Amino acid sequence: MKTSLNRAFGQRTASSARMAALCVAMLLAACGGGGGGNSAPPLATAFAPSAQLAHLCANPRPGTADRQGTVDQEKAYLRSFVDETYLWYRDVPAVNAASYTTPQAYFNVLKTNATTATGALVDQFHWSQTTQSWNDTSAGISEDYGILWADLVNTIPRNWVVAEVAPGSPAAVAGVKRGDRIISVDGVDFATSNTSAGVAILNEGLFPRTLAPHVLVFSDNLVTSLAAGTYSIPSVQNVKTLATANGTVGYFVFDTHIAKSEQELIAAINQLKTDQVSDLVIDMRYNGGGLLYIADGLASMIADPASTAGKAFETLIYNDKLGARSTTFPFYDLDSNGQLLPHLNLSRVTLLVTRDTASASESVINSLRGVGVTVHLMGSTTRGKPYGFVPQDNCGYTYFAIQFKGVNNAGFGDYADGFRPTCAAADDFNHGRGDPLETMLSTALHYRLTGACPAVASAPAGPSAQAFRGTPFEPNVPTVVQPGVRALRILTDRP
């Protein structure tokens, strides 16, 4: 049974609707050299330098670098940007820009159509969004209910439950909790409605485009009127210790790699260091990645500095036009303020993972394994995204095109099929995250104690969870379809 996860967003932008169908799955192709894949590349074409076309906008914004331009110039900029930086630039098809109404629609097709041996698209991580919404997300600010949905069944009779509720969000204030099952939305039965009008109401109520309230009925007779609201997302939560028969285990939830994560992670590591933990379990089951330097700092704080000194956290490999940019990042000793990072000095760590665990989160796994740290994974196979990008702003939109592949100190980066779990374990919505009885955490504790996977957790697992962040669905489609997914490995300068 497939389980997908879905974060309710309420961003009210034109690009949001266009992003609704954007789905991020696994990147399964080898990279390098600016090519790859099975399709015939287009004929070589000369494009004007993107720097000459940057900020020429059909609707320039006051107080910005925007200059008066045209939609055609915005499209030309995107074509040049992709040709210069895209990892598989040789495979981008020749398409008629005039066939696409907006620059964003045009950008969506400026990627390889190559498929892998299994028939999957090579690049499913190519999208754009408004720069304002990207900046808000990067700062940990959301405008939605604060609910991460899990679709246990997405065909009639549907069955969705709440996977996570963000602290301080409208849903948290209303008393919604993990495991609650959605019964109806604005009077429409969630499980059985199959008309276009009914599904349109479900879509708008679950992923509102305005701040208007919606009545949601949950299991246990919880009826609440919810309106999307703005709140700050904590990236690190539930830092604690677990007493076991063979030592103290540290635990915390880590859900996103954003700038403020650095100090939150440092505080968590310092607390666990004071508590003298002998092992660590990090709950990253919904962590789709983010800023690469945050992943670097976390990996550094887990390991003994003696095992990371002089070694590479990750080396980034670009296309052949940008080969000179290829850069090796060491394991950091200092935070972005120049202060020494704390260390737990561990030779092993356990991560709780699902298909939602992606990109920068996978860098933590790969980098530690590259220097000999044992990384046990409990849950299901991770996303598989050894690729990343530098967000590119132009005319009020931010564009994401794959630009590099990351490899660890041992030169390994071929995990586009994801990292398989040490022990398979289901996401247990009947228990809170951090509860020792929750299946994924209890599996980790059992494995630590016995060195073997528990019998139940060892059973073959179904397709793993998939995280979605997005916007309303097409109202004329009589099915509840998840919004867009993103898995992020973002290269930025440290503050």
From TrEMBL:
Protein name: Peptidase S41
SUPFAM superfamilies xrefs: ClpP/crotonase, PDZ domain-like
Annotated signal sequence range: 1-29
Domain PDZ, first and last residues per copy: 161-204
Lineage start: Bacteria, Pseudomonadati, Pseudomonadota, Betaproteobacteria, Burkholderiales
UniProtKB keywords: Signal
Native source organism of the sequence: Rhodoferax lacus
GO cellular component assignments: outer membrane-bounded periplasmic space
Gene3D superfamilies for this protein: 2-enoyl-CoA Hydratase, Chain A, domain 1, 2.30.42.10, 3.30.750.170
Stored InterPro entries: ClpP/crotonase-like_dom_sf, PDZ, PDZ_6, PDZ_sf, Pept_S41_N, Tail-specific_protease
One Gene Ontology term from the biological process aspect of the record: signal transduction
Alphabetized GO MF terms: endopeptidase activity; serine-type peptidase activity
Domain of life: Bacteria
One Pfam family, short name: Pept_S41_N
